[in-house]
Amino acid sequence: MNQKITKFLIIANYSKSGAVEAANRVMEYIKGKGLDACLSISDDDIEDGLIREELIKDAECAIVLGGDGTLIRAVHTTRKHPIPFVGVNFGTLGFLTDVDIEDIQSMVDRLIAGDYEMEERMLLSGTVRGVMDGRMLALNDIVVARSDALRLISVKISVNGQFFDEYEADGVIVSTPTGSTGYNLSAGGPIVNPKTSLLVITPISPFTLSRKSVVFDADDKVEIELMAKRKEQGDGAVVSFDGYENISLQVGDVVDIRRSNHSVTLLRFSDMNFYDRLRRKIRS
Questions:
Q1: How is the chain split among helix, strand and coil, in percent rounded to 5?
Q2: Which residues of 168-206 are buried (b: 16+ CB within 10 A; e: fewer)?
Q3: What is the pLDDT of residues 70-101, one digit of tens each?
Q4: How far is CA 117 from each of CA 33, 110, 124, 142, 200, rounded to the nearest angstrom?
Q5: Residue 62 and residue 264: Cα distance in Å, rounded?
Q6: What is the pLDDT of residue 185?
């Protein structure tokens, strides 16, 4: 039996129909049991990219109502106070949000009883040398992509300090196992069990069709340098961390990517495992 959770942060995507109403019902249910709950349902609850301190400081768990994108955003807005997450799905079946809306009360009861499983997900850590002061985290992926819709970009990729390859493409994705079912999949990359520890590098619409995804060890260190494709090429790329934080790149900039020392904890209840969710997703 795990820790019995008594202090909750409830995060809702206000753009999802019914999510805010459901969040208020969950808070009333929790408080009706004499426990603590705070609610974050609008942009007013975010300061400098983080959920306000008074809302999160005592929380032992975050219940996230929305979709996978809402949960990924919650990972970023709670990064100064890392806590476990439970994803409640609104709409289509998610890979991260696997609790159905009608099961919320039984989910809360199980959290209170400590009846849940913990699942660790690896994070990426990335920075742009000489441009960023610190490092950003990513649960899904770090993407270097063109910012000019009419031009390809050229990138040189090194792994553990050794030259690996050079891509001329719309961009390149460095994905975690969690992110393998996101942009990586759309770009033709492989689906990976999220409990594994590895990196996937996938070019986006490469000019040379022989360029394919490559799987690397989780502890490999990846460097992506923006190269000059033409003399007139200028500020033509951007690096994105989970689509949450975007930094412009110039020719010569190097994006340094490695496995983070931190991870994200998801709390699970469903008897449906990753392969069940994948099968249902593929058939839907």
A1: 20, 40, 40
A2: ebbbbbbbbbbbbbbbbbebebebbebeeebbbbbbbeb
A3: 999 999 999 999 899 999 988 676 788 888 88
A4: 22, 10, 23, 28, 27
A5: 12
A6: 93
Distance between CA 113 and CA 3 in Å, rounded? 8
Pairwise CA distance, residues 253 & 40, whole Å: 37
What single string gives the DSSP state of each residue in 56-100?
A: HTT-SEEEEEE-HHHHHHHHHHTTTS---EEEEE-SS--SS--EE
Cα separation, 228 vs 234, in Å, equals 8
d(CA 53, CA 57): 6
Spatial separation of the C-alpha atoms in residues 254 and 156, rounded to whole Å? 9
DSSP state, residue 251 = T
The predicted model scores a pTM of 0.92
Residue 231 banded pLDDT, cuts 50, 70, 90: low
Residue 48 half-sphere exposure toward CB, CA atoms < 13 A: 4
Count CB-CB contacts under 10 A for residue 23.
Answer: 25
The region of weakest confidence among 160-164, 259-263, 272-276 is 272-276
For residue 187, name the pLDDT band (cuts at 50, 70, 90).
very high
Query: Which of the residues 68, 98, 253, 256 is marked catalytic?
Result: 68
68 is a catalytic site residue: yes
**For residue 220, how many other CB atoms are within 10 A of its CB?**
15
Q: For residue 274, what pLDDT band results from cuts at 50, 70 and 90?
A: confident
